[in-house]
Amino acid sequence: MVWRLHPLQVSYYSEVVICALYSVIVSLIADASRNVGAEGWLIGFIAGVYSYSALFSNLLLGYISDKFGRPLTLFIADIFYSIFSGITGLYPNKWYILVIRLLTGCFAGIISVGIAGVKDYSKTKEQSNKLMTWVVLSMGIGYIIGPLLIIILSLAELKFDLFCLILGIVSLTGTIILSVLVPETRTFGGSVQKKRELRLQNSTKVINENLGDEPERNSEKRPITQNYNSLDHNSNEEGLELIEIKDQEFEEKRTGTPAKEEEEEEEDYDNNDDQDDNKDNKEREEESNQEEEDKSKQEKESKKEIENVSQKKQGNEIKKSHSFKEFLNKDLILLLFLYFLFNIPRISLISASSLLVKDIFKLNPSTYAPLIVLTRGLMITISAKFFVKWAIKKFGTLWSFCGAAFVCTILLVCCAYVKQFWGFLVIYAAFCFILSIHTTLTASLIVYVAPKHAVGRVMGFAQVLASVAKGVGPLVTISIYLKSVTVFFYVCAGLTLIQIPTIMLINVSKERKEGKENTKEGGDKNSLIKNEQI
């Protein structure tokens, strides 16, 4: 018996690989580039140049995955990502590190491809939320595995180049093993939805062909059966005609009048009566048909109106088109803006972790900086598994998101005044535990609002915004950090606080729409009841 995995598990593995390698390198890259000779803004640029190349790879890999399939795209991107991540620290030069990080980001679009794969296997919002939690869990596992290996390897006093090389080899072997367990990684094929559409088209063609052949066959059979029946009854019909002729001759002899004239008069009288009856019946049938047509039209119109109202309430009334502007509505724009905002403080804290450990806490960055990333991965995994579902059920989407943003703002302000590493680690753990609500809710809402035929492009654009945030964030915040650590934390807190009014705009606009549609739906139902009573 061959052991096989589901194609969706390829996306989970890809999230683990990219988060493991990214978390390790990004937590140490600032201190490593400073040791090589980078200064000032160049440290932040090296930390964020990965995201600039990822900006284009998200769109490109999203398009390729829509056309050639998710598993194959993920498999190829995982191989190149593992190779470039493994050779990051082989040559101690700031420009070499800059170029390698730029090439590594060219295959970082596998995050958008993995999230887009959720849409292929989810039909409702609840299913997309469940699958999205597994995506967040896989990201959390990646943030645990990578730093944990670095902490273990740091006990042997290894350097940055060996850290990257060992992790690259491990992820590359795992990708090759996964290609054996998932045969879809070795075949060209579109997404699941495209395959379903092709199956439906083929089935409808077969049904139409069968239905088109049946009336022709029946028309060929009918004349044959009629001829056969006529041959069987020829003898009986001839005998009846002879009997009728003899009866007519007998009546003419007895009465002296031809029987044909009497029969013609009776037939004319009967025909006139039949014509009158037929006219009355036709008039009645026409009246009844008109009434039925009027009723059917009213029912169809009422059903269409109710369906339109329900579609508007669910937010599924997005026109299918090939241009990105036509399905980019207000809610989707605000959600993409949220996706951009919460990535800036998140990536800024990770990028500055090695500098914080070395400058403020006076500790070894190769040991304690991965510990910060490990704490982040543990908190995200625990929160996504237990806390996020409970918070959404208990408080709803709006209050869960707003409460999490407010608490995260307070925690970031507290980090500015902590002078001990373990106190900072506890506050940062609470920050990451609550921040996972933003990741789960924002990504699942974007996937749910996006149209089915373009979910890869929408998530690619979302990852483009995230890449811009990951590139601009370290460049600006690390420059601020080199001048003032307190201002650095206050800027991150302000960017988190802005998310509250943004999510309020999305929910308020939906409630207003639902209120108007409820009044319309109530009026439609009352009118339907009155029509039925009439």
TrEMBL record:
Residues 224-233 have a biased composition (Polar residues). Pfam families: MFS_1. One of its GO terms (molecular function) is transmembrane transporter activity. Residues 261-277 have a biased composition (Acidic residues). Residues 1-511 form the Major facilitator superfamily (MFS) profile domain. It is a multi-pass membrane protein. It is found in: Membrane. One of its GO terms (cellular component) is membrane. The chain crosses the membrane at residues 12-30, 42-64, 71-91, 97-119, 131-156, 162-182, 332-356, 368-388, 395-419, 425-449, 461-482, 488-508. Keywords: Membrane, Transmembrane, Transmembrane helix, Transport. Residues 214-223, 243-255, 278-287, 294-307, 515-524 have a biased composition (Basic and acidic residues). PROSITE patterns: MFS. Residues 206-314, 515-534 are annotated as: Disordered. Its main location: membrane. It comes from the Eukaryota. PANTHER family: MAJOR FACILITATOR SUPERFAMILY (MFS) PROFILE DOMAIN-CONTAINING PROTEIN (PTHR23504:SF15), MAJOR FACILITATOR SUPERFAMILY DOMAIN-CONTAINING PROTEIN 10 (PTHR23504). This is Major facilitator superfamily domain-containing protein. It comes from Anaeramoeba flamelloides.
